């Protein structure tokens, strides 16, 4: 078992806490965090600031060496959101950044740039998003954490929201990540053990507009960083284990002032028809590879809908869009888009939902991009 944990996780953590408790004068460590060139993960590096920043304007731009067709290129880091650093503690900061190319245009994986413009256009609707991030813990050997090295654990059934050493694998990580999120200033609203053993979920939200993407990306950073301390890996692969084992999604819950008001269900039903008309477009942005990763997950089995068919229903898990039971009863609230994969870019997902549901004129542009063959 130990050999599946990273070597650095076994370094002496008591020694570490001595050094972390040393005073740092008035200086502030700022760890810049950004989305990598493949759009499926994060990178970070740290610098010293002369004093604690009081707003994002106090944090200077920076840069790093990215790679473009085999040669390195300098990219600019533009700070966009500050969080408290739960690893090195106050006054140190985590700084989420947008990435620009050297021509000042957004990098290819910088979906925040357009998301911000869309959220600005639809801000009068007061759009809220709540995202459910599912993930699977793996050892550094890539094998699901604490699964038998040969064969499989007992079939799915007892693990979802389960407890006990034979049902909940790796809860330390979930609890430490939850605390780290609260300390950092993430609006984390819950966590639970998932259907597959070693699979877990946390939820962020509801957050308005661009903040949803900012918060989920930083919550992912904290997850990967907590896992690093424990010597394991958090995989956002939408279907880490083929066969009759649940995949991982990033269900995206969405509401506006109108859907939250009395009789809002009528608005939700109209939005569902708009989402139906743009199904393929939404599948294409549901993972970083045009829907190819999510194709392994959206089979119509294991609590998913079939990737080729749009469907919607109250309180069903086998649909593209679910109307939660309480929303159907109250006739107001939010809808749940169950299609996004665990490794989706939340900026791409939230901006697509906002465009389709709230920007009438843009729908035709979306449909003209439609290419259903890509999914076969
Ligand atoms: P599920 O039953 O699908 O597992 P969860 O309890 O895991 O649902 O997650 C519910 C999500 O819905 C949370 O992310 C929460 O922030 C979000 N949510 C709740 N109310 C709203 C709302 N009015 N608008 C948007 N999202 C919401
Ligand atoms: Mn959930
Ligand atoms: Mn779930
Ligand atoms: Mn859900």
From TrEMBL:
Keywords: ATP-binding, Cytoplasm, Ligase, Nucleotide-binding. GO terms for biological process: glutamine biosynthetic process. Residues 111-376 form the GS catalytic domain. It is found in: Cytoplasm. One of its GO terms (cellular component) is cytoplasm. The keyword Ribonucleoprotein does not apply. Belongs to the glutamine synthetase family. PANTHER family: GLUTAMINE SYNTHETASE. This is Glutamine synthetase. It comes from Hemibagrus guttatus.
């Amino acid at each position: 078992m130990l050999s599946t944990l990273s070597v650095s996780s076994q370094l002496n953590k008591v020694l570490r806490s001595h050094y972390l408790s040393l005073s740092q004068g008035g200086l502030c460590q700022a760890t810049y965090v950004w989305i990598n060139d493949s759009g499926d993960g994060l990178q970070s590096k740290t610098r010293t600031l002369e004093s604690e920043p009081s707003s994002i304007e106090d944090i200077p731009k920076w840069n790093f060496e990215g790679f473009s067709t085999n040669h390195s290129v300098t990219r600019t880091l533009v700070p966009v959101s500050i969080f408290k650093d739960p690893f090195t503690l106050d006054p140190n900061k985590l700084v989420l950044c947008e990435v620009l190319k050297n021509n000042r245009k957004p990098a290819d994986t910088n979906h925040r740039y357009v998301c911000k413009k869309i959220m600005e256009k639809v801000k009068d609707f007061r759009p809220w998003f709540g995202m459910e991030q599912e993930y699977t813990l793996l050892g550094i050997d890539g094998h699901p954490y604490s699964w038998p090295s040969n064969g499989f654990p007992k079939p799915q059934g007892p693990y979802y929201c389960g407890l006990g050493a034979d049902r909940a694998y790796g809860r330390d990580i979930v609890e430490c990540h939850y605390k780290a999120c609260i300390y950092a200033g993430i609006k984390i609203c819950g966590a639970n053990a998932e259907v597959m053993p070693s699979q877990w979920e946390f939820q962020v939200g509801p957050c308005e507009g661009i903040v949803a993407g900012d918060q989920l990306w930083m919550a992912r950073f904290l997850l990967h960083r907590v896992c690093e301390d424990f010597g394991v890996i958090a995989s956002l692969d939408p279907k880490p284990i083929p066969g009759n084992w649940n995949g991982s999604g990033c269900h995206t819950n969405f509401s506006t002032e109108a859907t939250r008001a009395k009789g809002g269900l009528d608005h939700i039903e109209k939005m569902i028809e708009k989402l139906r008309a743009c199904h393929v477009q939404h599948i294409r942005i549901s993972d970083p590879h045009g829907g190819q990763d999510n194709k392994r997950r959206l089979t119509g089995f294991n609590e998913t809908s079939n990737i080729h068919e749009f469907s919607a229903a109250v309180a069903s898990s086998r649909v593209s869009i679910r109307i939660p039971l309480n929303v159907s009863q109250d006739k107001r609230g939010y809808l749940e888009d169950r299609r996004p994969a665990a490794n989706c870019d939340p900026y791409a997902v939230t901006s697509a939902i906002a465009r389709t549901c709230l920007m009438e004129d843009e729908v035709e542009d979306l449909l003209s991009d439609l290419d259903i063959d890509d999914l076969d």
